[in-house]
Design brief:
Layout: E1 15-17, E2 20-24, H1 27-38, H2 43-57, E3 67-73, E4 81-85, H3 95-99, H4 119-130, H5 135-148, E5 150-151, H6 154-162, H7 164-169, H8 172-178, E6 190-191, H9 194-206, H10 213-236, E7 240-241, E8 247-248, H11 254-258, E9 263-266, E10 268-272, E11 275-279, H12 287-296, H13 309-329, H14 339-342, H15 345-352, E12 407-411, E13 416-422, E14 469-473, E15 476-481, H16 488-500, H17 506-511, E16 515-517, E17 533-536, H18 542-550, E18 554-557, E19 567-571, E20 577-580, E21 589-592
Parallel strand pairs: 17-18
Antiparallel strand pairs: 1-20, 2-12, 2-21, 3-4, 3-13, 4-9, 5-6, 7-8, 10-11, 11-14, 12-13, 14-15, 15-19, 16-17, 19-20
């Protein structure tokens, strides 16, 4: 049995060239990144400019009040690094304080769930250290779209319609921002955000008197953390409705904001079929992909083919083991598992031995460093909500409610970046009228139980789902990633296997039908799981789906083109650049030459 050949038709070509390539979840951001490259900017200038445009054109998927994780490799660098834009829990965010409010979970919406926003500071840090452009030039694209308007994508219009009653009845500032005429906007309506345009221009003005480019950007960073974000913290300190229907106050304050700075961290890496795969650390879910790849590496090619029942089953079962370990061991704490123990050869062998021909209905964490695993409470029933909960990702029925964002850029010099910005969605918490955006809800990913690696602790970063990827072999490199909450790496895995094992082009791998497991503890409120649950695209075929069900998977059919949001750019071993983007949702695009 051989690996399934790629389809002869793709939704668009894998772009190839020598100048530069950009890919993202929105065509306007991709066009912005490519415009920067055309004007002499490098990949980091391009990514920064595109990222601020994503705040404007995909406000239901990310915002200035959110967070960011990226992996970058400057031209000539021996190793990539992680750009860390995830702020910690506020000083007042203790388990005891939340329990005293009668909570057993951090709410999925509302200001009480806001960690320190890290995305904007991280983008400015990237521009300062690795870019070449002035801040005013990098922000000009976003200022223009915010001030002059942009056509609203269908997903954003649907999101606003879904939370229209919440906005009207409980979050009037959000209703004013997103429904100024009293009704939700329609797809392609021209939407403006002059308040956010003013914010961006204020950042530029903050550095106007500084003597050099670096100082001008640093002045903007200080203004963002000490002048602009405190306005948002003060606003959500007023009582407002949260996901459980109760009126609560936010606890983020000015001291929390002033203490934060984005930064750089080392990557965690593992080998797969001769390639090195780089991920952020165990404060993200990224190493779970490395664990999965290590488990399946020695298996026969045919047993990894996502287009077959045997291959789909293998990927689902290996990921269930990896994510059980994530749920027991990952977090921003010394109590978390070390990447070395998690990826140890003997431990990987023990985990691989648990793979059988039948689907497991258990959550089976291991003991990578000899300690007994600590699992959070597992819920199979979702509780009622106010309609604005969790990450706007794929529901357990397979219905798409939106996603995070993703952005990849590579330039002719060899600079490359894979970035996943998220949080601060327009439905996260009430819009701050003076700023035109809201704060995120990343703290919902913490547990209100002492002693867990992902417990809520003041000053600790919530464990995040944001998980960009860089794959390298010598001078060859692929930057890829996907929105999708818990599914981000699950959708990247079949694409990587098809590219590395099956020999697919990037676009062939992205277009091919995919699947993911729901047999994990959901990272977003209300934190449920589905034992043996699997969601598949119908294009896998009835025979494959029936065999997955026979093996014990509780399969949900999601439709033909419903799962996966992967985009990618890279340079092959001959030195040719390439790019590919996701067609699902009809807004992702790649560009380049």
């Amino acid at each position: 049995m051989t690996f399934t050949a790629p389809a002869s038709f793709t939704t668009r070509p894998t772009l190839r060239g020598t100048f530069g390539m950009s890919a993202s979840t929105h065509w306007t951001a991709t066009a912005t990144a490519q415009a920067v490259l055309e004007r002499g900017g490098n990949a980091f200038d391009a990514a920064t400019a595109a990222a601020f445009v994503l705040h404007v054109v995909e406000p239901h998927l990310n915002g200035p009040g959110g967070d960011l994780v990226a992996i970058l490799r400057p031209a000539g660098a021996a190793e990539p690094v992680v750009l860390m834009g995830q702020g910690p829990a506020p000083a007042a965010a203790s388990i005891e304080a939340f329990r005293a409010q009668g909570l057993d979970l951090v709410p999925g919406s509302g200001g009480l769930a806001a960690a320190v926003p890290g995305a904007v500071d991280a983008w400015l840090l990237l521009l300062r250290d690795h870019g070449t452009w002035e801040l005013a030039d990098a922000l000009a694209f976003a200022v223009g779209y915010a001030r002059d308007g942009h056509p609203l994508v269908a997903g954003a219009a649907a999101t606003i319609a879904r939370v229209a009653d919440l906005f009207r009845d409980h979050w009037p500032s959000s209703a004013e921002r997103w429904m100024p005429d009293g009704a939700p906007p329609q797809p392609d309506d021209l939407v403006r955000n002059p308040a956010y345009a003013d914010v961006l221009e204020a950042l530029v003005a903050a550095g106007a008197g500084a003597p050099d480019r670096r100082s001008r950007i640093d002045a903007a960073r200080r203004a963002w953390m000490t002048e602009i974000l405190p306005v948002a913290a003060d606003f959500v300190a007023q009582p407002h409705t949260h996901s459980d229907g109760a009126a609560r106050r936010g606890i983020l304050d000015r001291d929390d904001l002033a203490a934060f700075e984005a930064g750089y961290e080392p990557v965690v890496s593992a080998q797969f079929r001769g390639w090195t795969v780089h991920k952020p650390g165990v404060w993200t879910q990224g190493p779970a992909l490395l664990h999965t790849l290590r488990m399946i590496d020695p298996l026969d090619d045919a047993d990894l083919d996502p287009s077959t029942a045997a291959g789909g089953h293998t990927l689902l079962e290996a990921q269930k083991l990896a994510y059980a370990d994530r749920d027991a061991w990952f977090g921003d704490t010394d109590d978390a598992v070390s990447a070395e123990a998690f990826l140890d050869d003997a431990y990987i062998d023990r985990r691989r031995s648990l793979l059988t021909a039948d689907a497991s209905a258990e959550l089976r964490p291991g003991s990578p460093d000899g300690r007994e695993p600590l699992l959070p409470p597992l819920r199979t029933e979702a509780r009622a909500s106010m309609g604005s909960t969790g990450e706007p990702t794929v529901s357990r029925t397979g219905a798409t409610r939106g996603d995070t964002c993703h952005l990849d850029v590579i330039d002719r010099w060899g600079n490359v970046v894979s970035a996943t910005p998220s949080g601060g969605w327009l439905q996260s918490s009430p819009t701050v009228p003076e700023l035109g955006f809201c704060l995120g809800t990343r703290m919902q990913m913490t547990w209100l139980m002492p002693g867990h690696a992902a417990s809520l602790v003041p000053g600790r970063r919530p464990r995040t789902t944001l998980t960009p990827t860089l794959v390298t072999r010598g001078d060859a490199v692929t930057a890829l990633g996907s929105p999708g909450g818990d599914q981000q790496d699950q959708w990247q895995l079949p694409a990587l296997v098809r590219m590395i094992v099956g020999g697919y082009s990037a676009q062939q791998a992205i277009d091919a039908p995919t699947l993911h497991t729901t047999a994990l503890a959901d990272s977003f409120w209300p934190r449920t799981w589905t034992p043996a649950g699997a969601v598949v695209e119908n294009r896998l075929g009835e025979d494959v789906i029936a065999e997955l069900e026979r093996r014990g998977h509780r399969v949900t059919r999601a439709g033909g083109w419903a799962l996966g949001r992967v985009s990618a750019v890279g340079r092959d071993e001959a030195g040719l650049l390439f790019a590919a983007a996701n067609p699902r949702g009809m807004q992702g695009y790649a560009a380049g030459r």
